């Protein structure tokens, strides 16, 4: 390194040199674990490494290639294309002629489109290339099934706080790390918590904090770290896991969990109006007629969030979430609607009985349209006695729940069914 060269970032300098130096992932690298068994066999299949940022996917790929004596070619799907893959293939063919295998590492493989991923297939299938793809996205959705079937998917986990502590302590003691830098124990604990399982972020923050103070203090860590934004990929699996957790927590009437998942989404950068739409859906789907006011309040919260924007509008969403979590629950309309849609799509098309049809012309009256219709307010008994479905048609769609408003009108629902000659049905709780 010359006077004008900049040193590599701390995370790069401390990159493990052997599998034994890897921190975390003991479910893959412990004794008898999947990756350990593969390396012991000396045979490395194609792999998909799926896990969050900063957990060592690239490092692990380099190390396992070295463990089996293969040449390592690293590409990033952000900048590489089919041309780069062809060059890697030519290099692999040349090395195979000299008796050496090639591992092609493709970082962020989910960014390759279907055609680009398909270009890898023949070379993976022939064994010319051993592919190791790394992704933060769910391979079930982002990696072609044909390519996925030729590779083994290994799930990497976010580093624990203990793992992060090990990395930070290594950075302070390893000759490749921060020589002469000390760190207050409270600062180390703070950074281990803030890192959210991302080792690269932890080391980058430590390097920046060491410029601000030595020994590194909590204040230096806070300043170097910047604003703490909870981890969330707005287009990826984490996003949908969080919205699912919010929905199910409200449905389960757990107020604190509902507020927590709402805050995780909003502070993580989710579109407030997307969240608001889900809140409106919860009001209709899970609270329903147990509390008819819930839908009105949810729509008002959505309008308020749009009108005020962030952060003021967040309070309206929080208010709606608390209200919905505390509200009685009913999915009776939701399930009734699914039943009727299925009946319409799959059943026979039922004609409208003549007495229920409108008759605006004499011709239609002559055909019997509207004949014999009993107007409820003139003839309540006749209104109940007449049929509202064709003769022989039987539908069992709506069944009120036992909570809230529906619980209070169950008796009226039963009497109405009896008046229509339909008898009693079991209610849903």
Structural overview:
The protein is of the alpha/beta class. Helices cover 52% and strands 6% of the residues. The chain is built from 22 helices and 5 strands. Helix 5 links the parallel strand 2 and strand 3. Helix 14 runs antiparallel to helix 15. The longest helix is centred in the N-terminal third of the chain and has 16 residues.
Radius of gyration: 32 Å
Number of continuous helical runs: 22
Quick one: how many beta strands? 5
Main structural class: alpha/beta
Sketch the topology as an H/E string, one letter per element.
Answer: HHHEHEHEHHEHHEHHHHHHHHHHHHH
Shape: elongated
- Gap between N and C termini: 73 Å
What is the residue-averaged pLDDT?
A: 89
Assembly annotation: single chain
Low-confidence segments, given as residue ranges, are none
Strand order of the largest sheet: 2-3-4-1-5
Relative strand content: 5-15%
Residues in helix, %: 40-55%
Report the biggest beta sheet as strand number plus sense, adding barrel if it closes. Answer: 5 strands, parallel
Question: What are the SSEs and their pairings?
Answer:
Layout: H1 10-13, H2 26-29, H3 34-41, E1 47-50, H4 57-67, E2 71-76, H5 82-97, E3 102-107, H6 114-118, H7 121-126, E4 129-135, H8 139-142, H9 145-148, E5 152-155, H10 161-173, H11 185-194, H12 199-212, H13 218-225, H14 237-251, H15 255-267, H16 272-287, H17 293-308, H18 314-326, H19 332-346, H20 362-366, H21 380-385, H22 404-419
Parallel strand pairs: 1-4, 1-5, 2-3, 3-4
Helix pairs in contact: 10-11, 10-12, 11-13, 12-13, 14-15, 14-16, 15-18, 16-17, 16-18, 17-18
């Amino acid at each position: 390194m010359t006077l004008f060269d900049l040193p590599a970032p701390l995370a790069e300098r401390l990159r493990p040199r052997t599998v034994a130096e890897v921190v975390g992932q003991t479910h893959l690298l412990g004794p008898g674990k999947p990756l350990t068994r593969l390396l012991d066999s000396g045979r490395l299949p194609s792999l998909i490494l799926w896990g969050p940022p900063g957990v060592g996917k690239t490092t692990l790929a380099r190390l396992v290639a070295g463990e089996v004596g293969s040449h390592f070619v690293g590409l990033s799907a952000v900048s590489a294309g089919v041309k780069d893959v062809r060059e890697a293939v030519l290099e692999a063919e040349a090395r195979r002629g000299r008796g050496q295998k090639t591992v092609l590492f493709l970082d962020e493989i989910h960014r390759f489109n279907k055609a680009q991923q398909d270009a890898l297939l023949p070379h993976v299938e022939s064994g010319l290339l051993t592919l190791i793809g790394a992704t933060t996205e769910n391979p079930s959705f982002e990696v072609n099934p044909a390519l996925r079937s030729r590779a083994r998917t290994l799930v990497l986990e976010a580093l624990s706080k203990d793992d992060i502590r090990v990395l930070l302590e290594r950075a302070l003691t390893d000759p490749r790390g921060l020589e002469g830098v000390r760190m207050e124990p409270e600062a180390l604990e703070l950074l281990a918590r803030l890192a959210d399982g991302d080792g690269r972020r932890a080391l980058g923050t430590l390097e920046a904090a060491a410029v601000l103070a030595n020994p590194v203090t909590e204040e230096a860590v806070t300043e170097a770290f910047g604003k703490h934004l909870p981890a969330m990929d707005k287009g990826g699996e984490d996003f949908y896991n969080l919205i699912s957790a919010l929905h199910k927590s409200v449905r389960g009437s757990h107020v604190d969990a509902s507020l927590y998942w709402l805050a995780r989404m909003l502070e993580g950068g989710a579109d407030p109006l997307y969240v608001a739409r889900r809140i409106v859906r919860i009001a209709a789907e899970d609270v329903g007629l147990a509390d008819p006011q819930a839908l009105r309040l949810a729509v008002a919260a959505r309008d308020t969030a749009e009108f005020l924007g962030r952060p003021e509008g967040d309070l309206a969403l929080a208010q709606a979430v608390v209200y919905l979590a505390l509200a009685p629950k009913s999915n009776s309309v939701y399930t009734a609607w699914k039943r009727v849609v299925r009946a319409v799509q799959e059943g026979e098309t039922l004609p409208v009985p003549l007495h229920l049809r409108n008759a605006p012309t004499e011709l239609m009256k002559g055909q019997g349209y509207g004949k014999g219709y009993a107007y409820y307010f003139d003839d309540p008994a006749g209104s109940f006695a007449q049929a509202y479905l064709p003769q022989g048609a039987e539908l069992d769609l709506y069944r009120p729940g036992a909570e809230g408003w529906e619980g209070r009108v169950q008796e009226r629902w039963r009497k109405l069914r009896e008046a229509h000659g339909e008898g009693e049905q079991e209610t849903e709780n």
